[in-house]
Each structure stands twice: as structure tokens, then as C-alpha cells.
């Protein structure tokens, strides 16, 4: 039975939420659920914590985060297994996420040292030659971090790490389906020396989070990763706060003529089916030049059929379960609907227990849900094209714009894609699923706004204070 963290104390609320292993459908633990009173206590703690954190030197913040990274690696196997059990993420992917999260915390520690300001050359103005000006960056105060189930460690580190580096306190609300990893991280941060009021971790209903956290005027910054629908609700209720929103996508890849097909297939296999497609930058649409379409189709279907389906706690497993039955049935209904509208399922399209088999489909149209909406499942739609500019136009035909991939040996086409794709990131000769944790990550259109990556998140979690001297 796990407890929530408020003011450095682990609190049993006597009201619990079961944590379900999505592969077995059975409870593996339970966590205390916060009431409205607990959320108010968390805010009070965070107010105290913000004052303490503001007074911590940059070097002390660096030390705390560096120690956190060290302790994470000492417990890496425990953390990875916890993720595999609560999220259904295959163990090999979970171990990879621990390594990435370690890097995210290390990068955050380094940014704590770099956080500075800039001199403004006031003598550039004709009336200010005897004045001096500079600005410094100061913490916003309290950061509210809200994360989804699919990356229960690294996405959390992308919010908590930069918030601490910038000198803020944090209230963190993890997904109710995957809270255990966040609570482990909380233990580690306290052991690393983080002041007790600087981090509060609460598990609560979306309604309570909205009413008591999102709407609170004491919280100055919200960093949210999740669905477009919830993001819009947060934005409409937050009031005058700084917001960062990463709201998903239906990312596409263009595979141009003369591309190394085997290289493209190898990358698309992971981009489309890794963690059962439950990734914001999941490679959902593939636009393939007609000259290599049949070759690519044959090879990607073979690759999908050879993926190992099984228990996510086994290192040999490639494909584990969807997060729950509801999501599995939703993805299946979208595939069945596409079939009824003329699409052809080349492989998959059905369940194996709590696993949805890797699915490749063709003969799709832009009106089908599997093309225009975010499937968040192991699906890949194949769409042939003749003209590269046409492929770019079709990829852009979406309300989303997070990332896109382009495989091409044609430099002109590469630069055309860079200039014309309406997305936050263009991955040349890779899938849209590529991400390095130091890069500025975020999207356009309904994929949200703001950027993650410790350097950029730190900037969004600070305010500029301008100082002017008249001597």
C-alpha cells in the first residue's frame, strides 16, 4: 500500500486506488487517493517550499539533482520492473527509459549552473547613454506537473528536473494508472537532499486536480502532457498562469524514392509498434513513394509479424499490452471501422489477450479515424505517393503537428520538408518517434505549445526580472 507525499511526509489517506498490471488484469498494489483537503495541504507545503527553493544556491540545486541521478542508477532495476508491471511497457523499453530519465536529470543539474541573465546595452538608445541594464531569471514559484501513463519516469523527470533546477517547488500529479514510479522518484529526491516542502506527489481525480490545483492562483506554472481534450480544459481553467502543453499527434513519415528500404523498415518498425504505439510521436502514417511501395509493404508486414508478443517483464518481449481494455477496444473499433470503409488489413487487427497485435493497413482515406485522429495504438497506415510535395501536403493535413520523419537521399527534398512541414520537429532520415532528451521538444497546432528539454523547460519555469541602474 503506497502513500502520497505532502510536506516530506508519506500520508495514508484511507482511500485507495488499485494499480492494475495491464498484462494480467490483476492489481499489483494500491495507492492512497488525495482528498480536496490533502490537495490544499500540498499547496500550502509548496508555498513554503517555493521560498526555500528560491534561497537555494544554483550549486546546491545542482548537487541535489546530481545525487538524484546517482541514486536512480543504483535502483535502476527496481524502477524498470516497476514500470513494466504498472504500465505494461516491455522491460527492455523500461530499462531504456530509466537510462533516458537519468540523462534528463543530469541535464537538468547542468542547467541549474547555467541559469543566468543578460546585459542590455542601454547606450544603444540615444537617451540612455548614462544608464546600465541587465536582467536575471528568477523562479516562477510553484510548478504543477501533470503526466500521462506512457512514460511514467522520463516525462516526470522532464518536468520535476527543470523545475528544481530553476529554483521552484513542485506539485506532481502522476497518471492514476501508473503512480508507483513517480512515488519511487519522490523517495529518491528526498534521499538526495531535496527540501521536504519542495516536492509534493498527489494521486487524485481529474475533477479535483482541476478544481483545487489547476485553478489555484498560488500555482504559477503548469506543465502538462496528455490528451488534447484535457489540455483544452486545463487551459480554459488555469487563469493567468504560464502553460506548457504537449497534447499528442498522429505523426507521419515520408519515405522517398531511392531510400534504403531496409533502413526505413527497421526504424518504422520501432516507431510504429514500440510500446504498442502508446507514444505521442508514434509513427502512425507512412507516405511511401510508389516506386518502392510494394517492397516496403512486404518488408514492414514481415517485420510486424516477427515481433515477439508476451509478458512485458520478459526481456525478449517486443509487444506488451495496451494500458487497459477500454483503449484496446477503442483501437480495434477504429480498425474495424476502417475495414468497413474499404481499408485492407495486411496484418494484425485483432487482440491476443490484453495485447493488440501490430497492425498494418492500406487503402485508407484521409477521413478515416486511423489516419486523421490519434490512434495511440500499434497501427500503421500505408499511403503511396508520386510527388514529394504532395506527400508533404498530405502529412500536413492534420490538426496535429508534433514531429514528422523524412527518409530521402535528395537534399532539395529534405530542405523542402524542413521548410514546409507544419510540425515542431523534422527528423531527416529517421522516424518522427526519434527524441533526444536535450532537444527542444514540442509541437504546433493542436499538438500544443511550449518546449521540453531541460534547457528550454528551465526558461519556461522562470520569469525575467529586469534591473536598471542610473549612475
From TrEMBL:
Key words of the record: Oxidoreductase
Gene Ontology molecular function, alphabetical: lactaldehyde dehydrogenase (NAD+) activity
Start and end residues of each Aldehyde dehydrogenase domain: 10-467
Keyword hit for Oxidoreductase: yes
Keyword Oxidoreductase recorded: yes
EC id: 1.2.1.22
Family: Belongs to the aldehyde dehydrogenase family.
Protein name per its UniProtKB record: Lactaldehyde dehydrogenase
Amino acid at each position: 500500500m503506497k502513500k502520497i507525499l505532502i510536506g516530506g511526509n508519506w500520508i495514508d489517506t484511507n482511500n485507495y486506488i488499485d494499480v492494475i498490471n495491464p498484462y494480467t488484469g490483476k492489481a499489483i498494489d494500491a495507492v492512497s487517493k488525495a482528498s480536496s483537503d490533502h490537495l490544499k495541504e500540498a499547496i500550502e507545503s509548496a508555498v513554503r517550499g517555493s521560498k526555500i527553493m528560491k534561497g537555494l544556491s544554483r550549486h546546491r540545486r545542482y548537487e541535489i539533482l546530481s545525487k538524484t541521478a546517482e541514486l536512480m542508477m543504483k535502483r535502476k532495476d527496481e524502477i524498470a520492473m516497476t514500470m513494466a508491471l504498472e504500465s505494461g511497457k516491455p522491460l527492455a523499453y523500461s530499462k531504456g527509459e530509466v537510462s533516458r530519465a537519468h540523462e534528463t536529470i543530469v541535464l537538468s543539474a547542468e542547467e541549474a549552473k547555467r541559469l543566468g541573465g543578460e546585459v542590455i546595452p542601454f547606450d544603444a538608445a540615444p537617451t540612455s547613454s548614462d544608464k546600465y541594464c541587465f536582467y536575471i531569471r528568477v523562479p516562477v514559484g510553484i510548478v504543477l506537473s501533470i503526466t500521462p501513463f506512457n512514460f511514467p519516469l522520463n516525462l516526470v523527470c522532464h518536468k520535476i528536473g527543470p523545475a528544481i533546477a530553476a529554483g521552484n517547488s513542485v506539485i506532481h500529479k502522476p497518471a492514476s494508472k501508473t503512480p508507483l514510479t513517480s512515488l519511487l522518484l519522490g523517495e529518491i529526491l528526498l534521499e538526495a537532499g531535496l527540501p521536504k516542502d519542495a516536492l509534493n506527489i498527489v494521486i487524485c481525480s481529474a475533477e479535483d486536480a482541476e478544481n483545487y490545483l489547476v485553478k489555484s492562483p498560488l500555482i504559477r506554472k503548469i506543465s502538462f502532457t496528455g490528451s488534447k481534450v484535457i489540455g483544452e480544459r486545463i487551459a480554459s481553467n488555469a487563469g493567468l498562469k504560464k502553460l506548457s502543453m504537449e497534447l499528442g499527434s498522429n505523426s507521419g513519415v515520408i519515405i522517398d524514392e531511392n531510400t534504403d528500404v531496409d533502413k526505413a523498415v527497421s526504424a518504422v518498425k520501432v516507431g510504429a509498434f514500440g510500446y504498442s504505439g502508446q507514444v505521442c510521436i508514434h509513427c502512425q502514417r507512412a507516405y511511401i513513394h510508389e516506386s518502392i511501395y510494394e517492397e516496403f509493404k512486404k518488408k514492414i508486414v514481415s517485420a510486424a509479424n516477427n515481433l515477439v508478443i508476451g509478458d512485458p517483464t520478459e526481456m525478449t518481449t517486443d509487444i506488451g499490452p495496451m494500458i487497459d481494455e477500454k483503449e484496446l477496444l477503442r483501437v480495434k473499433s477504429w480498425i474495424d471501422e476502417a475495414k468497413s470503409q474499404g481499408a485492407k488489413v495486411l496484418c494484425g487487427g485483432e487482440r491476443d489477450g490484453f495485447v493488440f497485435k501490430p497492425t498494418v493497413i492500406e487503402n485508407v482515406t484521409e477521413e478515416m479515424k486511423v489516419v486523421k485522429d490519434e490512434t495511440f495504438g500499434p497501427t500503421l497506415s500505408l499511403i503511396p505517393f508520386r510527388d514529394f510535395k504532395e506527400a508533404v501536403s498530405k502529412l500536413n493535413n492534420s490538426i496535429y503537428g508534433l514531429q514528422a520523419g523524412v527518409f530521402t537521399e535528395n537534399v532539395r527534398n529534405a530542405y523542402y520538408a524542413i521548410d514546409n512541414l507544419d510540425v515542431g520537429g523534422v527528423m531527416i532520415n529517421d522516424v518522427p518517434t526519434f527524441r533526444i532528451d536535450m532537444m527542444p521538444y514540442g509541437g504546433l497546432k493542436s499538438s500544443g505549445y511550449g518546449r521540453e528539454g531541460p534547457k528550454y523547460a528551465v526558461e519556461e519555469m522562470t520569469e525575467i526580472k529586469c534591473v536598471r541602474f542610473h549612475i
